[in-house]
Design a protein that fits this description.
This protein is of the alpha+beta class and about 260 residues long. About 25% of the residues lie in helices and about 25% in strands. The strands form four sheets. The chain has a five-stranded mixed sheet with strand order 2-4-3-1-5. It has a five-stranded antiparallel sheet with strand order 9-8-7-6-10. Strands 11-14-12-13 form a four-stranded antiparallel sheet.
């Protein structure tokens, strides 16, 4: 593999990309196998000559790859039959389709010698589901029951998008055809839209104020989301925590407001 860079749009994609690179033998320069948050960066660059990772754009000559493309080398490196995503019509042979071609299982993954056209009529996809994923048929039933369903297309690298169910309500959503539900292949996945959220916030550590301390705290009664006062025995309300500076409480309010984004 040549020098390459991968765009990561959020921490979840960054974590998956880092874990895949670690499995392929890459390490962060100076940090080893430690998970690194992307912060303001949007690219992770890999250097195979040194087997090192660096955060940032890299160079214009570095090849840009996607997460599905990165999963291909990882799967071949892992050499596990459970990664098969197609099976022959007679159920005898297992195949792996990646972005760079077809592989057949023969105690390990070997590049298939069959013509590409051969696969059109001789293999069928293996349906695999994680605990929260559902089949295309179940997705159709859920939509008919008025539930919200998410869909992901790994070949187009769409990420999880909500399926549009109303005319005109398509912004930020996906509009699949019936074939996606009935014979979409292993790259098409469905799951119900979660009704709960997992919150992971990075905020400054609060402190326990003493009488006379200047306190900054969250306040739903103020437009900016916070207020300040001098702590005293008569006025000591810090049920959501207290911070020493305005800069710290601004970070807390900014992070707390992200919870609302999950209601969209």
């Amino acid at each position: 593999m040549n020098n390459c860079k991968i765009r990561v749009n959020n921490e979840a994609e960054s974590r998956e990309a880092q874990e895949l690179f670690f499995e392929l033998g890459y390490r962060w320069k100076g940090y080893g196998l430690e998970y690194i948050r992307i912060g303001n960066y949007t690219f992770i660059t890999a250097y195979p000559d040194e087997m090192l990772l660096r955060m940032g754009w890299g160079g214009d000559t570095d090849e840009e790859i996607t997460l599905p493309q990165l999963r291909g080398p990882f799967v071949l490196h892992r050499n596990d039959l459970d990664d098969a995503n197609f099976i022959s019509e007679d159920g005898e042979d297992y195949y792996l389709k990646t972005l760079d071609g077809w592989y057949v299982w023969d105690l390990k993954w070997e590049r298939s010698e069959n013509d590409i056209d051969w696969f059109d009529n001789n293999v069928k996809p293996i349906q695999k589901f994680n605990n929260d994923q559902i089949s295309g048929a179940d997705a159709l039933r859920a939509l008919a029951d008025g539930k919200s369903v998410l869909m992901k297309d790994d070949e187009l690298d769409t990420g999880w998008l909500e399926i549009c169910t109303k005319i005109g309500d398509f912004f930020g959503k996906i509009e699949p055809c019936i074939a996606h539900f009935l014979n979409g292949g292993d790259h098409i996945q469905f799951k119900l839209k979660p009704q709960t959220i997992k919150i992971e916030l990075e905020i400054p550590k609060p402190f326990v104020p003493k009488e006379g301390d200047r306190v900054w705290c969250i306040s739903p009664d103020h437009k900016n989301g916070y207020t300040s006062y001098l702590c005293s025995r008569l006025f000591h309300t810090t049920q959501f925590g207290a911070w020493r500076t305005e800069a710290e409480v601004k970070i807390v309010v900014e992070q707390a407001r992200k919870i609302k984004e999950h209601s969209k």
